[in-house]
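ok so i was messing around last nite and threw this chain in just to see what happens. nothing serious, just curious
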Amino acid sequence: KTYSLFYIIQELRKKIDRNRLVYINFEDDRLFPLQLKDMDDFLQSYYELYPTNRDKKVWFFFDEIQEVPNWEKFIRRVWDTENCRIYLTGSSSKLLSREIATSLRGRTLPYEIFPLNFSEFLSFNKIKTNTNTSKGQTTILHWFDEWLQQGGFPELVFLPKELHRQTVDEYLNLMLYKDLMERFSLKNPSLLKYLLKHVVTNLANPMSINKIFNDIKSQGFKLSRATVYDYISHLEEAFLIFNVNIWHRSVRSQAQMPSKIYLIDSAFKTAMTIGEDKGRLLENAVFLYLRQQGLKLHYLLKKQEVDFYWKNGMPINVCYDFYSHQTREREIKGMFEALQFLDEKKGLILTRDRTERIEKNGKTIIVTPAWKYFLMTTDRR
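result:
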């Protein structure tokens, strides 16, 4: 979050006077203990230093704002009384985006920060290659498989591989115990950890609350369906998991059907499960890519499943290994059935490395490597 702010500041400095860009990190120990009145002192001190800026727009960047009790009162007043633009960041362990929106009465525009996508991962690793050559594609595929397994946490790029597992475990414990246990006053860490492992094991599979409840109860845990629902909701609010509902014309039917769950980063699946499941990792990566585009995603379940569909969009299936004749025929048949049902002209099948175009009865299926799709710059909306 902090470096995202730094990037915005860097871009603004190209056209805005530096003294109109104000950054404060409220986790700086030199500022402790902070009270609401101290915020006003910051503001007054700034305008005493630059009095002429009262008549100009000023950009305030408040990092980790949740460290100041009742901060929203100050922000509302500054927004109402000063000529300014305000950027806020906050930790999900103490602050949720919906709470920010509530505190500031709808005056906010939230931005979600995701782990590195594939393009960013290549950039971090300083990989530049011509993807139109066989050698270039071999290089890209190596790094693509590396990214699927390693995930997109930036710190891992600069750490030795032997420290990856330990670092991911630390991230996971931080999210479970700080972002969840403390934030929501949860009393059963063993249940929370088992629930997450159950979700990770069944990544990208349709799951209902009832099924999760029965599976966990069979392991000897004492819990209610309401507890499962609450814990799943908390995992979502902490941005650890995401729910994708089935596409259905009836909202009621949609709510009663199983949903599919995806992870904020594939590193957690790699760390929490044994063996490789590249198909699920690829589907999770496709989900994150589409989610970053701001799309409201659904899955479709008829005779065959369609992994991703959204309003005015192209249905997408994910198939890591498209070489098996049986798999290929199943995927193609399922996509043509989906196109017929949805009355769509085109469908997309994302693979590891296969390219193909299949046409039938006025419908077209485009088969393309997922890495090519990820490296395109076109907005998917």
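not much to say yet. The mean pLDDT is 90.
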